[in-house]
From TrEMBL:
EC number: 4.2.1.51, 5.4.99.5
Localization terms from the record: Cytoplasm
Protein name: Bifunctional chorismate mutase/prephenate dehydratase
Coiled-coil region: none
Role according to the record: Catalyzes the Claisen rearrangement of chorismate to prephenate and the decarboxylation/dehydration of prephenate to phenylpyruvate.
Catalyzed reactions: prephenate + H(+) = 3-phenylpyruvate + CO2 + H2O; chorismate = prephenate
PROSITE patterns: ACT, CHORISMATE_MUT_2, PREPHENATE_DEHYDR_1, PREPHENATE_DEHYDR_2, PREPHENATE_DEHYDR_3
Residue stretches making up the Prephenate dehydratase domain: 96-272
Pfam families cross-referenced by the UniProt entry: ACT (PF01842), CM_2 (PF01817), PDT (PF00800)
Record-level Gene Ontology MF annotations: prephenate dehydratase activity
Keywords: Amino-acid biosynthesis, Aromatic amino acid biosynthesis, Cytoplasm, Isomerase, Lyase, Multifunctional enzyme, Phenylalanine biosynthesis
Record organism: Serpens gallinarum
Stored SUPFAM superfamilies: ACT-like (SSF55021), Chorismate mutase II (SSF48600), Periplasmic binding protein-like II (SSF53850)
Length: 365
């Protein structure tokens, strides 16, 4: 069989598979519409329907990855199914999601990774504004950064949890790849200024020292703002990610310039609904202890004694008094698990205050 005949046969097969995929996706979408109909029929007076279930979506993605035999890797397969679920959910009720803007930030990329492209996204100017939108009910969920593997905790997010009553509904980890971006008018040989967010400049410091040691580094409010400025300037470049590059029509002068190749940021999904256990969860709490010797040790002992894995602990100044502190703790497990419940009850007896911020499925990827 000639090459032309082989390609023709393969294309006929691909066309047939595409038709089957289309039929199956449409069938899934009709099922989603039926789910919405059933939920609305069984709604009690005054009750608000819940269409988005984080624990259900987490299970679906993990199940798909367990079944996946390639050649597409798990991350790509999960991305495809996330978009299918996002589109189907929009038929039930489009989600409204606020995120730390402007458009083109890594927080927007995290929102798209977690919720898919079919949500109605709303960029906000500050982290506290994202919290306020969720508390007011103007959006269903918010997306905020909480920690970076290189630069550590995002203090504005932690402080916002002290001020607002809100529930953590999910998390997403995003590999952060920084690119040196230029506009169509940029003279690459004459770059005298590089814009970016302060954290991004810090994450690329060694690379900048080696390649642009004498160029002015200007910190701006966000990487998206950096990309926006560069578009109209001839002697500047920006450090930003793929979303900003696409949004503002910039080209990559250099790719992946971050000093650490494993550079990642963790984002939290915040909302107002509790998430049931999935069997693979995390819990976040805030604990305030009295200022006495051994207080931190007393706080950690119950976790160690019961074999509960702590994944993060941060300290922030308390709003209640000078030189007093609160602890932000993440650990493996759900607050409804009997063992975790017992530990939290023990802590509540010893702590000045304890607040469960939420239990939620671990990041799928």
């Amino acid at each position: 069989m000639s090459e032309a005949d082989q390609l023709k046969a393969l294309r006929v097969r691909i066309d047939s598979l595409d038709e089957k995929i289309l039929e199956l996706i449409s069938d899934r979408a009709r099922c989603a519409q039926e789910v919405a109909r059933v939920k609305m029929l069984n709604l009690q007076p005054g009750e608000t329907p819940v269409f988005y279930r984080p624990e259900r979506e987490a299970w679906v993605l993990k199940h798909i990855m367990e079944l996946n035999k390639g050649p597409l890797d798990n991350e790509e397969m999960a991305r495809l199914f996330r978009e299918i679920m996002s589109s189907c959910l929009a038929l039930e009720q489009p989600l409204k999601v606020a995120y730390l803007g402007p458009e083109g930030t890594f927080t927007q990329a995290a929102a798209l990774k977690h919720f898919g492209a079919s949500v109605q996204s709303k960029p906000m100017a500050a982290i506290d504004e994202v919290f306020r939108e969720v508390v007011a009910g103007a959006v269903n969920f918010g997306v905020v950064p909480v920690e970076n593997s290189t630069e550590g905790a995002v203090s504005h997010t932690l402080d916002s949890f002290l001020e607002h009553d809100i529930v953590i509904c999910g998390e997403v980890e995003l590999r952060i790849h920084h690119h040196l971006l230029i506009g169509e008018n940029t003279k690459s040989a004459n770059i005298s200024r590089i814009y970016s967010h302060a954290q991004s400049l810090a994450q690329c410091r060694k690379w900048l020292d080696a390649h642009y040691p004498n160029v002015e580094r200007v910190a701006v409010a966000s990487n998206a703002e950096a990309a926006k400025r560069v578009k109209s300037e001839w002697n500047s470049a920006a450090i930003a990610g793929d979303v900003a590059a696409q949004l503002y029509g910039l080209s990559k002068l250099q790719e992946k310039i971050e000093d650490r190749p494993d550079n990642s940021t963790r984002f939290l999904m915040i909302g107002n609904q509790e998430v049931p256990p999935t069997g693979d969860d995390k819990t976040s709490i805030i604990v305030s202890m009295s200022n006495r010797p051994g207080a931190l040790h007393e706080l950690l002992v119950p976790f160690h004694a019961n074999g509960i894995d702590l994944t993060r602990i941060e300290t922030r100044p308390s709003r209640s008094g000078k030189w007093t502190y609160v602890f932000f703790i993440d650990f493996v497990g759900h607050h409804q698990d009997p063992l975790v419940k017992a530990v939290l009850e023990q802590l509540s007896q010893e702590a000045v205050a304890l607040k469960v911020l939420g239990s939620y499925p671990k990041a799928v990827l």
